[in-house]
Amino acid sequence: MKKTKVALVYDFDETLSTTYMQDYFLIPELGMKPTEFWKQANTWAAKNGVEQIMGSMFYFKKTAEEKGFKLTKENLACCGEVIVFFKGVEEWFERINKYARYLDLDIEHYIISSGYEEIIAGCSIRKFFKDVYGCAFAYGTDGLPVWPARVVNYSGKVQYLSKINKGLGKFDDKAVNEYTPDDKRRIPFTRILYFGDGMTDIPSMKMVKDHGGVAIAVYKPRSKQKEKAIKLLKDNRVNFALAADYREGKEIDCVVKTILNKIATERDLEILKKREDKKKMCPIGK
Q: Would you list the DSSP string of the chain?
């Protein structure tokens, strides 16, 4: 019998990593402080009527050219090597996969992020994800960015979440809008857990929660971000608001394991129910 599939879907910046992925190495390499860069990028986007995330991609390209930094895939991947994760993140995936196997569950991990796929490609945890949906550049023959290949904002996150639900590939843009009966979807929302922290995650978290899945708002331990996460809980947009500590025995670990237990128990009950339904079809005395 095939194991029951469960999807754990994560935002990246300030959900798994302690800050934005570009802040660790890329922005300092451009000779700027993160607060300075983001302020300038967002101001440029607003002034020119450009969507904020797309605007920041252009501003990275522009600034890198001015500073003489080659924004190649290889250099961006190197930026991923120095990312700092919240406690327990690097051990989380193997531990939770092992727990799921005990329950005959098959976990697939995904990232849906407004950060850069090229940077995530170089980080230590990339190997644990079935797929990564993030912003990405298109490159010229010289290996340098010429245009955004993908821009993932709040609406884009919902689209990729639907692709995971339906079992579609990253580039199946037409099929994602076609009607698919619930029983034909590869991983139903009831078996999707979404982890996020920011405004771009709210539509995805609400979508998962409203369809019977679990949305978890995480926040940096001992920070003002806790208030934002609690507000999401009060506003009924998430199921849980938990500190971003992925170590064994901490809140996230205990909550996710309990949810996996529930999924496994509901599956087992459904199997028993189907067995009993078959008995109803048999003639009495047989």
A: -PPEEEEEEE--BTTTBSS-TTTTTHHHHTT--HHHHHHHHHHHHHHTT--HHHHHHHHHHHHHHHHT----HHHHHHHHTTPPBPTTHHHHHHHHHHHHHHTTEEEEEEEEEEEEHHHHTTSTTGGG-SEEEEEEEEE-TTSSEEEEEE---HHHHHHHHHHHHHT--TT-TTGGGS---GGG-SS-GGGEEEEE-SGGGHHHHHHHHHTT-EEEEEE-TTSTHHHHHHHHHHTTS-SEEEES--STTSHHHHHHHHHHHHHHHHHHHHHHHHHHHHHHHSPTT-
Domain range enclosing 266: 4-19+85-278
- Any long-range contacts for 37-44 (C-beta under 8 Å, 24+ apart)? 37/63
Element (H, E) at 50: none
Specify if 145 maps to a domain.
yes
In a domain, 260, yes or no: yes
Task: Tell the residue number behind the tokens 């992020």, with chain if given.
Answer: 113
Q: How far, in Å, CA of 271 to CA of 249, rounded?
A: 31
Tell me which DSSP letter residue 239 carries. Answer: S
pLDDT band of residue 284 (cuts 50, 70, 90) is: low
Q: Please report whether residue 75 resides in a domain.
A: no
Would 57 be classed as within a structural domain? no
CATH number of 200's domain: 3.40.50.1000
Condensed to tens digits (0 to 9), the pLDDT of residues 52-98 reads 999 999 999 999 999 999 999 999 999 999 999 999 999 999 999 99
Look at 283 and 162; give whichever has higher pLDDT. Answer: 162
Domain count, the chain: 1
